Amino acid sequence: MDTNAATPSVLMATTNETLLDDFLRLAAAAAVTPHVQTNLAGLRRQWHLGSLVVIGHDLAEPLSRAQPVHRPGVVVVGSAADGDDLYRVAFDLGADLVCRLPADEPMLAGKLADALDGAARTAVTLAFVGGCGGAGATTFAAAVAVLGNRRGYRTMLIDGDPLGGGIELALGIERDPGDRWPKLLNASGRVSAAALRSALPSVDGLAVLSWDQSDVTVLPPDTMSSVIGAAQRSTDLVVLDLPRRADPAVEEGFIRATATLLVVPCDVRSVAAAKRLSGPLRSVAGDVRVVARDSRPGLAPADVAAHLSLPLATRLGIDPKVPAAMDDGRFAPHRRSPLSRAAADILNLFAPSEST
Length: 356
Fold this sequence. Notes:
This protein is of the alpha/beta class. Helices cover about 40% and strands about 15% of the residues.
């Protein structure tokens, strides 16, 4: 069998039908369509195709005796019954990886997803959380994502709060087709970056992962980790809107973030609430900074940051037009609005100098 692939980045080769079934199952899960060879001659002929070659032990052995030119991206696959001979053959071929199935299926799935995703990206990942209820963190996260998208960054906005209002409502895409969090609940291990991005609803090119109206209120931490990892591989900028409550999945968001922006209204009660949150937040987030939101009357932004013992990222002015725009599903901050100016400050601090 010689399958002409729509995505010719992966070559799979084995004469073992059971092993081939395993290969194809894992490839399908990673949204990869491979070239398949079931004989040594075909394998040698296509040895230099694509970025990844996955070879069963049954063909790896005779291939090693043919002494092919060494190439990167070779994975030799067998079972525990193959013993040390599996590693000897892999060494002779100069393989990058040895996988014993079924134990090493997640490892092989990760290599397949890597092949589909292509060159690794290093996305700037910004997490936003309110220092108190109603702080405006969701609004500000959406503003940063919208402005990043306008600047030409491949951007993904992820709503990590199942009990929030639903960020897609503000963007007016709640009826648009595409996956929401409940559809991804079984995601773990390596999630294909390209498949995730293409599955999500978007607005003007901004990919959005939000919630539907189901009763799902908890995310497994493995799911959060896998989805954020895929987002980071497929974008320049990932914006996370996270809740204040402690939760293993939420902690994954803070851990994976380049920086965490704590949005705090400049009044005494809000600062007191943010003070209680800042300690636990710093224990999981590497870089925490304050976004001081104006209040009337209010404290000075510098004083808010000093009281929280955190650096001040920016001051967020009051924009009276925003609440109605969000309620109407037409959130698109004016370029010169206080919200856009503060969002620009954040992007200038953390975003890449140019989109890729």
